[in-house]
Design a protein that fits this description.
Layout lengths: L6 E4 L5 H14 L7 H13 L3 E8 L2 E13 L4 E11 L8 H15 L2 E6 L6 H9 L16
Parallel strand pairs: 4-5
Antiparallel strand pairs: 1-2, 2-3, 3-4
Helix pairs in contact: 1-2
């Protein structure tokens, strides 16, 4: 591993394959999702084209080693914008070096530029390292649960 020279930047289409690989790592941890390179590539392309969203990458040694993404939503509870944070993942060999913290700080800065009053995310209840990471950043659990239904 290098001397930890990591840069955080907006993702581009040139990063797609690295991002797809990171999502495969993330979805191997999360029980509710299955890695499907075609779907993930399509979803990432949509995110990159979404003016109300942001995909950030952590780059080190000339390759993508981490990512996070977020999408702006209107919150009736807040009376303004909130940010739904998704896909926070750092490559296994780069974990524990503050890269996730840098990614989340950069996404929070982007949210501030858009006058976001609340950030929110979903996390796998069994991913204890991720939950500890979020709590260490000041995130709080709520009484809400996530429900989903597929619509095709």
């Amino acid at each position: 591993m290098s001397d930890l020279r990591v840069s955080i930047r907006a993702a581009t289409t040139a990063d797609l394959e690295g991002l797809v690989a990171l999502l495969a790592v993330l979805f191997s941890i999360e029980q509710d999702f299955i890695a499907d390179k075609g779907r993930q590539r399509q979803g990432l392309a949509l995110m990159l084209a979404n003016e109300r969203g942001r995909v950030l990458v952590a780059e080190a040694d000339g390759r993508v080693v981490g990512m996070c993404s977020g999408q702006l939503l209107v919150s009736t509870a807040e009376g303004g914008l909130s940010l739904l944070v998704e896909d926070v993942v750092v490559d296994k060999e780069w974990r524990g070096h503050g890269i996730g913290r840098l990614l989340m700080a950069a996404l929070s800065d982007w949210a501030s530029q858009h006058q976001v009053s609340r950030l929110q995310l979903l996390a796998d209840r069994n991913n204890l390292p991720a939950l500890a990471f979020y709590q260490g950043l000041g995130w709080q659990t709520t009484e809400l649960i996530c429900l989903r239904r597929y619509h095709r």
